[in-house]
Specification:
The complex is a heterodimer of chains A (264) and B (321). Chain A starts with a strand and ends with a helix. Chain A has a nine-stranded mixed β-sheet. A two-stranded antiparallel ribbon of chain A has the order 2-5. Chain A is built from seven helices and 15 strands. The mean pLDDT of chain A is 91. Chain A has a single domain, classed as Rossmann fold, CATH 3.40.50. In chain A, strand 6, helix 2 and strand 7 form a beta-alpha-beta unit. Chain A is 25% helix and 30% strand. With 264 residues, chain A is an alpha/beta fold. In chain A, helix 3 crosses helix 4. Chain B folds into two domains: 168 residues, HUPs (Rossmann fold, 3-Layer(aba) Sandwich), CATH 3.40.50; 125 residues, 3-Layer(aba) Sandwich (Rossmann fold). Helices cover 25% and strands 28% of the residues of chain B. In chain B, the strands form three sheets. Chain B has a seven-stranded parallel β-sheet with strand order 5-9-4-1-2-3-10, sandwiched between helices. In chain B, strands 13-12-14-15-16 form a five-stranded parallel β-sheet. In chain B, strands 6-7-8 form a three-stranded antiparallel β-sheet. Chain B contains eight helices and 16 strands. Chain B is elongated and about 65 Å long. The chains are: A alpha/beta (264), B alpha/beta (321). At the A-B interface, helix 3, helix 4, strand 9, strand 11 and strand 14 of A face helix 3, helix 4, strand 5, strand 7 and strand 8 of B. Strand 11 of chain A pairs antiparallel with strand 11 of chain B, so a sheet runs across the interface. The complex binds flavin-adenine dinucleotide and adenosine monophosphate. The site of adenosine monophosphate has 24 residues of chain A, from helix 1, strand 6, helix 3, strand 8 and helix 4. Flavin-adenine dinucleotide sits at the interface of chains A and B.
């Protein structure tokens, strides 16, 4: 079975700094991490490969060349092939264009299933998987928390989807795009010690616009249909407030407040 | 006169209705003819609120069938040429909106939380980078303008009553679906923190005693929620996470126990009437948003307040102490 996993490396948003004077995000020294939902999706694919060693897994990422090292670490975890789609013309692409670029590459491939994350930590749009579904004429489901391994056979998948109030199971005909959530608890294994420095460069392919042949005006900032016009720090509404101690008197103040508002 | 379409997601009709507030913000009140579309559902909830209700009537199309739903909305766009299409950012909405925008070859703005007008441009505002910043996004010209709208942010109130016309839409382009619903089961605890009037919320400061929050929640008939710190450390499910990468909540009362109040967290608090925070650091950002700040240990606070509530209840009911 051929599985393609779409992966995105995102800034570790917890360790982001905002420069309020210059009004920009401080991107220097920000660590890039594999988007957690994507890691869960890839972890599932690796489980399938453990069970059926003939499974072929390709990871595909559109990103700057600086993430090659991180893709190599995925190859060291038993991924068969990594494809990096990278071209300076693609920088600044909105989700519409990112999906068009990914779709052009994917259209030429044969696969049984595409696995993605449900949402990415940075933009958090969740657009790409569904847009790819449209471009590749495939069904797509987000918020997948379980894929039944025993029934995952290249013709169908039985998946559990977290629908907030309920968990629904669906049977999906393959090929399809299944977008996993990190709540699925599939965990990416560590790199085996003996593979830590494995030379994997033979399994890495870099795809640029000379392969995909987009008119440069159709991609990147120019081709995008949405544009970030400005960013600003989130402002908070400050309130007049009472400060009390954590003692009988303070508790009394809290209690009277709760009572006056009808909470107790 | 503009023409706008809202998608009524049966799983969250109220949030779908609130999209009408966004249309008013975009074009000014009364400057758009409004259409609401729903799938195999009469949409009675919006009678009087919109000009037209379009009921897609075809039992072959199920809610999870985004391909055929997209086919229908594409057909409707061809018929009516809407200037804007708004979709609630429910789970279905977040799969539907990108598929439809690709079909219509238009840009899409995700999870909109505000509308601004800048130099004559319509700007759709959304939180980015986990709510650390807000981004204003503009659409580069093509119509319809499409966005998904964050739930629980806008509120639509109107006292006027429109003469709503009903349209039955029979789709012509239906293909066999490759997705089949097998079954749905209730989650063990299906309580949604967004439905709770009172939230008892814990952060890093109660990491070692997160379970204690239940005691206070029980007394106030509240639900427990958490900051990302607690969720990331595996003490609670993301379902109860408040914040940019969690849920936006609008309880009347939010009790923040040992929560620092990072921007990402505060992003998840919308229209919260009252906040009480308990923190050893009275200068933590959450404190400036609070009605009352209790300086001290959060677990001790829980114990004291629970005792106080129980005692007073006994006094009120005339029981012996
Ligand atoms: C705050 C914010 C909110 C946004 N909201 C929306 C939205 O609602 N709807 C929407 O459609 N878009 C949205 N976007 C995307 C936006 O329109 C553009 O994508 C964005 O301006 C590009 O900046 P970036 O830093 O996010 O991405 P970039 O780093 O420019 O990347 C854009 C895409 O290209 C890839 N990429 C980056 N560098 C390279 C390279 N050298 N080679 C190949 N690929 C590369 C990235 O992996 C990504 O997929 C948003 C972006 C931001 C920053
Ligand atoms: N540049 C990209 N390269 C590869 N996959 C991507 C890219 N952008 C998004 N994806 C996939 O789409 C999912 C949702 O991302 P997003 O639409 O950015 O929220 C991610 O979890 C990835 O699986």
């Amino acid at each position: 079975m051929n599985i393609i996993c779409l992966v995105k490396f995102v800034p570790d948003v917890d360790n982001f700094m905002y420069d309020y004077d210059r009004n920009v995000l401080v991107r220097e020294n920000v660590k890039m991490i594999l988007n957690p939902d994507d890691a869960a999706a890839l972890a599932f694919a690796l489980k399938v490969k453990d069970r059926h060693p003939s499974t072929f897994i390709e990871v595909v990422s559109m990103a700057p060349k600086s993430i090659i090292g991180q893709l190599e670490d995925l190859l060291r975890r038993n991924v068969d092939k990594a494809t990096l789609i990278s071209d300076k013309n693609y920088v600044g692409s909105d989700t519409y264009i990112t999906s068009k670029i990914l779709a052009k590459y994917l259209k030429a491939k044969s696969f049984d299933c595409i696995l993605t994350g449900t949402h990415a930590l940075d933009g958090d749009t969740s657009h790409v998987p569904a847009q790819l579904g449209e471009l590749l004429s495939l069904a797509q489901l987000s918020n997948v928390i379980k894929i039944d391994e025993s029934k995952f056979d290249g013709t169908q998948a039985v998946v559990d989807v977290d629908r907030e109030k309920v968990i629904s199971s669906y049977r999906v005909g393959l090929p399809a795009i299944l977008s996993v959530q990190k709540e699925s608890k599939y965990k990416l294994p560590h790199i085996k010690f003996k593979n830590l420095n494995l030379n994997v460069s033979a399994n890495m392919t870099i795809v640029s616009n000379s392969d995909l042949n987009f008119d440069v005006n159709e991609v990147g900032i120019e081709g995008s249909l949405t544009k970030v016009s400005r960013t600003y720090p989130k402002k908070m509404e400050k309130k007049e407030h009472i400060v009390v101690n954590n003692d009988d008197e303070g508790i009394e103040v809290v209690y009277q407040f709760l009572k006056s508002k009808g909470y107790v | 006169m503009k023409k706008s379409l809202i998608y009524l997601d049966q799983e969250n009709i109220q949030n779908s209705i609130d999209l009408l507030a966004v249309i008013d913000l975009m074009y000014g009140k009364g400057n758009s003819t409004t259409y609401a579309v729903c799938l195999n559902h009469l949409g009675e909830e919006v009678t009087g609120l919109v000009d037209y209700i379009i009921n897609i009537k075809d039992e072959r199309i199920e809610n999870h069938d985004l391909v055929n739903l997209t086919n229908c909305l594409d057909e409707l766009q061809k018929t009516y040429a809407f200037d804007s299409i708004l979709i609630p950012a429910t789970q279905t909405g977040r799969m539907l909106a990108p598929r439809l925008s690709m079909r219509l070859h238009v840009g899409l703005v995700a999870d909109v939380t505000a509308i601004e007008h800048q130099n004559g441009n319509l700007e759709m505002v959304r939180p980015a980078f986990s709510g650390k910043i807000m981004a204003g996004i503009v659409n580069k010209g093509r119509l319809p303008i499409m966005m998904s709208v964050r739930q629980n942010v806008f509120n639509y109130n109107s006292d006027e009553s429109k003469n709503t016309e009903k349209i039955e839409f029979l789709p012509t382009n239906i293909q066999p679906s490759t997705i089949q619903l097998l079954d749905s089961k209730e989650k063990e605890r299906s309580l949604d923190i967004r439905d709770s009037e009172i939230l008892i919320s814990g952060g890093g400061g109660v990491q070692d005693n997160f379970h204690c929050l239940d005691m206070l929640a029980q007394q106030l008939d509240a639900q427990v929620s958490a900051s990302r710190r607690i969720v990331d450390s595996g003490l609670a499910s993301r379902r109860i996470q408040v914040g940019q990468s969690g849920k936006t909540v609008s309880p009347r009362l939010y009790i923040a126990l040992g929560i620092y109040g990072s921007l990402q967290h505060i992003e998840g608090l919308n229209n919260v009437e009252n906040i009480i925070s308990v923190n050893i650091d009275k200068d933590a950002p959450i404190c400036s948003l609070s009605d009352i700040v209790v300086v001290g240990d959060a677990v001790e606070f829980i114990e004291r307040l629970v005792k106080k509530i129980k005692n007073n209840r006994k006094i009120e009911t005339g029981e012996n102490l």
